[in-house]
Each structure stands twice: as C-alpha cells, then as structure tokens.
C-alpha cells in the first residue's frame, strides 16, 4: 500500500516510521510519502489560508493551493519526503512465519482512483469496519486541515480524481488533521496482511466481532495479592472460550451498550 499525506507540518508524521509500521516500510509492504502543502503556495509568503467568506473567526485553507497539490499527488507527480524505517529491525522469526501462515496479497478489490481521506470533525465517524475495508486499498491520500478547515470546493473538485471520504475520529475538535491521520493510518495499516507478526491477534480484537475484548493476563499468576482467574489456568479451551465470551459481553454491556443495540 502507498500512503501520501499532505500537511503544513510534515514532521508530525514522523511516528509512522517507527515500530511495526517502520518494519512494514522495510519489508516493502508499505510506502509513505509526506508532502509539504506550502510547496504548492505561489505567493512570497507561501500562504495557504485566507479569511472566510461570510465573516467569522479563523482562517480557511485555500482551494488554489490544495487543488494543485491533490492533482500532483494523485498522478504521482510529487513523491514528497519518502519515510524510511526509523531503525533496522531485528529479523526475529514472526509467529506467522513459524506457523507457516501466509498473508501475502490483498483480500479485496481496490478501486481504480486513489482513496482521499479528509479528516474533519464534521465527517462520518471512523470505525474498525472502515479500517478493515481500507486496508485493501493500493493508494490512500490524506489531506490534513488546519485553522477552520479546507475550502469545501476542494473536496467537491477532488471527487474528479479520487474516491473521497470526509471522516471524523471522534466527537471533539483537534487543532489539525495530522494526529487524526496518525490514528487512521495506524488502524488501517496494522490490518494489511503481513504487518502484524501474528495475524490472528487482530482477528480477536475489540470490534472485530462487534464487541469489546475482555481482560487479558500474563505471568506471574499472583501479583500484589491479585490472582489470575482460575479458568485461564484450567487448560480447558472450551471453558476459556466461554469465559472470554462472557467477559466480552459483560464489558460491552457496561461500557458500550450502543454496540449491543447494533447487533
Ligand atoms: N471548524 C472545524 C469544525 O468546527 O468542524 C474544525 C477545524 S479543526 C480546528 C482543524 C482541523 O483539524 C480540521 O480541518 C481537521 O483536519 C482536524 N480535526 C479536528 N478535529 C478532528 C476530528 N475530530 N476528526 C478528524 N479531524 C479533525
């Protein structure tokens, strides 16, 4: 998969080079280009914003800068600053390599136009289901807004060369789109076959079956007077499965009853 991010703060995207995503870049599963929007600004001040029509506080990002930037990135005319992996990763055998499980290749059909994701609090809520679908894309471009956001005509015009999605990561307002892009990029790319060393780990994650995942425990068996639940030590897989399902339902009932109503 190729990810391109257009932003006025390219340094914000640095975390994409680290840990599992850095390793995915090293393995050639993921390519990341980061583009400075100001490269498309034409005035001496490299300005990317202007006052809003109709008045009001704040500034709006200019279509005359965003339009050409999105044109060039869609056509691959700008490769931007290519992120490499933050550090060489120790080539330990991964669990999927040890079990012989192969996850090369995509499951779904990517569209012919790239997918443009525009983060905005006024967008459709981002979900695990979107992350799952978009993990099959070949090319995703993210457009990071700042100030009061991007002139709406940019989104309308971009539909000529992209499939466009305006997406919110939650009911709160951030300063800019960069952090929202990090959230979505991580949620999407961890689902690309081969990115996680153990693919079954995400198959059991929260939301994959519509519920929250229950609690997890590791060694030692007793810690600060707190015991691991006996059933997990029983060796009885059926009982463990039943217990996990019950914990998952209980947690979902308590914390996210809205998820149960969607079932
Ligand atoms: N005036 C906008 C509104 O009220 O909907 C808020 C603009 S916000 C200060 C600036 C930028 O931050 C947005 O263009 C978007 O890129 C990003 N942003 C802020 N909150 C977000 C959220 N909840 N989800 C996704 N992006 C967000």
From TrEMBL:
Top-level class of the enzyme under EC nomenclature: transferase
Gene Ontology MF annotations: tRNA (guanine(37)-N1)-methyltransferase activity
SUPFAM superfamilies: alpha/beta knot
Localization of this protein: Cytoplasm
EC number: 2.1.1.228
Chain residues that bind S-adenosyl-L-methionine: 145, 169-174
UniProt KW keywords: Cytoplasm, Methyltransferase, S-adenosyl-L-methionine, Transferase, tRNA processing
Residues covered by the tRNA methyltransferase TRMD/TRM10-type domain: 1-76, 112-261
BP GO annotations: tRNA N1-guanine methylation
GO cellular component, one term: cytosol
Transmembrane spans: none
Annotated InterPro entries: Alpha/beta_knot_MTases, tRNA_m1G_MeTrfase_C_sf, tRNA_m1G_MeTrfase_TrmD, tRNA_m1G_MTases_N, tRNA_MeTrfase_TRMD/TRM10
Principal location listed in the UniProt entry: cytoplasm
Matches recorded under Pfam families: tRNA_m1G_MT
Key word Iron present: no
Catalytic activity line of the entry: guanosine(37) in tRNA + S-adenosyl-L-methionine = N(1)-methylguanosine(37) in tRNA + S-adenosyl-L-homocysteine + H(+)
NCBIfam families linked: PRK00026.1
Entry similarity comment: Belongs to the RNA methyltransferase TrmD family.
Assembly description: Homodimer.
Function, as annotated: Specifically methylates guanosine-37 in various tRNAs.
Record-given protein name: tRNA (guanine-N(1)-)-methyltransferase
């Amino acid at each position: 998969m190729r990810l391109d991010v257009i932003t006025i703060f390219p340094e914000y995207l640095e975390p994409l080079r680290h840990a599992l995503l850095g390793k995915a870049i090293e393995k050639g599963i993921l390519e990341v280009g980061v583009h400075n929007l100001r490269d498309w600004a034409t005035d001496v001040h490299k300005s990317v914003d202007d006052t809003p029509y109709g008045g009001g506080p704040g500034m709006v990002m200019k279509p005359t800068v965003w339009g050409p930037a999105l044109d060039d990135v869609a056509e691959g005319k700008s490769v931007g600053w290519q992120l490499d992996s933050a550090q060489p990763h120790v080539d330990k055998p991964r669990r999927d390599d040890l079990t012989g499980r192969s996850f090369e290749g995509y499951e779904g059909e990517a569209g012919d136009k790239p997918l443009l994701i525009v983060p905005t609090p006024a967008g459709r809520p981002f979900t695990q289901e979107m992350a799952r679908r978009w993990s099959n894309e070949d090319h995703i471009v993210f457009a990071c807004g700042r100030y009061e956001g991007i002139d709406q005509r940019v989104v309308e015009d971009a539909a000529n060369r992209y499939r466009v999605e305006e997406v919110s990561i939650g009911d709160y307002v951030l300063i800019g789109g960069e952090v929202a892009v990090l959230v979505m990029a991580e949620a999407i790319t961890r689902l690309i076959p081969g990115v996680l060393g153990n693919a079954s780990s995400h198959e059991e994650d929260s939301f994959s079956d519509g519920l929250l995942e229950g609690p997890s425990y590791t060694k030692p068996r007793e810690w600060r007077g707190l015991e691991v639940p006996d059933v997990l030590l029983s060796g009885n897989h059926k009982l463990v499965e039943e217990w996990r399902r019950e914990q998952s339902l209980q947690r979902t009932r308590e914390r996210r009853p809205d998820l149960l109503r969607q079932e």
